[in-house]
Design brief:
binds NADP nicotinamide-adenine-dinucleotide phosphate; 7-stranded mixed sheet; 7-stranded parallel sheet; Rossmann fold
């Protein structure tokens, strides 16, 4: 029996998630939540660029809960604790890409509410994505060949010009003046879920951290940028670096770094790796690189099309985890708790 799934929103990530749910014989799309009023009532297939599916998008949460799906695949721009509590206590599991790994950055009170909702509904809550999410799993798996681990770092290094989510990008500091006194606090707030991923990795490695700190830096646009979804003035932030570090006795043991830039006109002109690099200092030292390229039959007419691959790799860690999340014991779950998550159902 396929797992019955409701897709929550059809934005950049949600569109690819919905298409994957429809494509996977182990999953069945039974509903679709629409946040935007203009999407309400429209066919979910039509919203994501595939033939009609006979499933209409709705903003009626009660109606979606009444469908009694096994899982909500949750990909709104901003996660809502109230919304997640409502879903979980109705007995519906959640697999999320919306800034959720352990819930630590939402605060203790929110985590307690989510755990309580899971207990009441006997449901589980899991969050992933490409990074944080799969990149952390890749690092943990890479560490599995070492008999000594001194430190692990994960670097995401990409040009995110085509990531058309203006509010998300503003929330991490894009477009601000570099001398804005709140800039580094903004970057820290906006990337706080990487601190959760540090915790998750430490937990999986059995390491007790003394503290978690965030260091950040910015690069500025050397000319006015019009990205379509937002403008960045010359001299304003068009590149962001953040390093979330888990420390033991003053030494950084886990370091999750991001380096994001928008386009070519940047000072300093940071190099990007166009992918993910795991580096383990230990015995042996390990370097694992994850790079993606389009399949031969990929109809990429533009760089924007190519960016769809970025959305696929963000959506699929959550979609592929749905069966495991549905079978997991109630509570907040991480990769530490789930069995091996693969691309089951996608090989034909
Ligand atoms: N871990 C990772 O690797 C990773 C990478 C990228 C993104 N993400 C996260 O994944 C989630 C989805 O990203 P995305 O790029 O798909 O986001 P998005 O396209 O900007 O927004 C997703 C959807 O959220 C709804 N929405 C719009 N404005 C909203 C608001 N003010 N409050 C609540 N909902 C709103 C809309 O739903 P409708 O479609 O129903 O109108 C929109 O399509 C985000 O939380 C993002 O941070 C994670």
């Amino acid at each position: 029996m396929p797992y019955r799934v409701v897709q929550w929103t059809t934005g950049n990530v949600g569109r690819r998630a919905l298409r994957a749910i429809v494509d996977n014989p182990n999953l069945e799309l039974v509903g679709c939540y629409a946040w935007s009023p203009e999407k309400v009532g429209r066919d979910a297939g039509e919203l994501v660029g595939i033939p009609k599916l006979g499933v209409s998008a709705t903003d009626d949460v009660d109606a979606l809960l009444a469908l009694r799906p096994d899982c909500v695949n949750y990909s709104p721009m901003w996660p809502s604790v109230d919304e997640m509590v409502r879903i979980l206590q109705a007995g519906i599991n959640i697999s999320s890409t919306a800034a959720f790994i352990t819930g630590r950055s939402l605060g203790e009170a929110a985590c307690a509410r989510l755990e309580e909702a899971c207990r009441r509904g006997q449901s589980s809550l899991f969050g992933s994505g490409m990074n944080p999410g799969f990149a952390n799993l890749l690092a943990l798996v890479s560490a599995g060949i070492c008999d000594r681990i001194d430190s692990i770092s994960v670097l995401e290094s990409v040009d995110s010009t085509q990531y058309a989510s203006a509010d998300t990008e503003r929330s991490v500091g894009y477009g601000r003046r570099p001398d804005d006194s709140d800039l580094h606090a903004t970057i820290e707030r906006g990337s706080a879920v990487f601190g959760d991923a540090v915790c998750m990795m430490a937990d999986a490695l059995g390491v007790e951290l003394d503290d978690i700190v965030c260091h950040s830096g910015v690069a500025v646009a050397t000319q006015d940028l019009d990205l379509g979804y937002m403008r960045i003035d010359e001299g304003c932030v068009a590149g962001i670096e953040a390093s979330w570090q888990g420390r033991v006795q003053g030494r950084t043991r886990i370091d999750l770094q991001v380096r994001w830039r928008k386009g070519k006109h940047l000072k300093p002109d940071w190099p990007v790796e166009h992918g993910y690099v795991v580096r383990i200092e230990g015995r042996p030292c390990v370097e694992t690189r994850l790079q993606i390229r389009p399949p031969r039959d990929f109809d990429a007419k533009s760089f924007e099309d190519f960016m769809q691959l970025g959305m696929i790799i963000t959506a699929l860690p959550a979609v592929n985890a749905i069966p495991a999340v549905c079978e997991a014991p109630a509570g907040i779950r991480t990769y530490r708790d789930l069995p091996l998550v693969t691309g089951r159902g996608f090989m034909r």
